[in-house]
Specification:
- It comes from Methylocystis heyeri.
- InterPro entries: P-loop_NTPase (IPR027417).
- This is CobQ/CobB/MinD/ParA nucleotide binding domain-containing protein.
- The chain has 252 residues and is of the alpha/beta class.
- The protein has a single domain (4-179, 222-251), classed as 3-Layer(aba) Sandwich (Rossmann fold), CATH 3.40.50.300.
- The protein has 12 helices and 7 strands.
- The longest helix is centred in the C-terminal third of the chain and has 20 residues, at 212-231.
- The chain is globular.
Length: 252
């Protein structure tokens, strides 16, 4: 299976990119796709807090850490890599991937590359699209609207759409629904993956005694996100063999 890299980021802070990265890891884990994660919020990452066994904290501007990620893509048995880019660092991360030759390798067909660009609520996010357009021509490039914190997004009129999208071809848009505030807060306090919270387990696997209602909200929310990932055929993009196995398992 060809190695796949999923980059989750934005050039604006506070848009909930780590929530998206956590949801991606939960989704892939639930579908039996073995995945590793890298958290570039160096030296102490939020993604690593929720997925410590699966995630390493790195400095993507460091050559040695770039080697930790890219030199191992073909040697590790884990073929799917999720990189959670630190707040405001998407352009810098893409520049680093270009400078190291990764984007050339993607163009040559050596790797699958997916970008989840998490948008802010203002039109300034469209400037980000324009800025990173030179880096995404060979990637599966998704625009993500994250409503988890009750964000309201602007609408793109035809003129605005034409101005900003003429230089970039997107693979689609993803909408992350709002999660009940109390449920979200309780998951933050628990410090576990969303799916672990739903299963009412602690990080050590012991019963957690969480609220049935709050777990229900998170379960429903994860289901809606899974529908979004299914709609854009995420499994087929990163792990086609695993996606067939998952489909067969569902049919059984």
């Amino acid at each position: 299976m060809k190695p796949s890299v999923i980059l989750v980021g934005a050039d604006k802070g506070g848009v909930g990119k780590t929530t998206i990265a956590r949801a991606v890891l939960d989704y892939l884990n639930t579908n039996n796709v073995v995945t590793r994660g890298f958290d570039t919020e160096f030296p102490r990452g939020t993604l690593h807090r929720f997925h410590p066994d699966q995630t390493s904290v790195i400095d993507l501007t460091s050559t040695s850490d770039q080697m930790r990620v890219l030199d191992t893509l073909n040697t590790t048995q884990v073929k799917v890599t999720v990189i959670d880019v630190r707040a405001g660092g998407l352009s810098l991360a893409l520049q680093a991937l270009e400078d190291t030759g990764f984007l050339d390798a993607v163009h040559a067909g050596e790797f699958n590359f997916l970008i989840f660009h998490v948008l802010g609520s203002s039109i300034a996010s469209l400037d980000e699209i324009d800025e990173i357009a030179p880096f995404v021509s060979d990637a599966h490039y998704f625009l993500v609207k994250n409503h988890v914190n009750d964000t309201t997004f602007f609408e793109w009129d035809p003129v605005t759409h034409g101005k900003y999208f003429e230089k970039v071809m997107t693979s689609g848009e993803l909408t992350i629904p709002k999660l009940n505030e109390m449920s979200y807060e309780q998951v933050e306090i628990a410090g576990v993956p969303f799916s672990t919270f739903v299963a009412d387990r602690t990080a050590e696997g012991a019963p957690a005694g969480q609220s049935f209602v709050l777990r229900g909200y998170v379960r429903t929310w994860l289901g809606r996100i899974a529908e979004e990932f299914d709609r854009v055929q995420l499994l087929g993009l990163v792990a086609p063999r695993d996606s067939k196995a998952a489909k067969a398992a569902k049919e059984r």
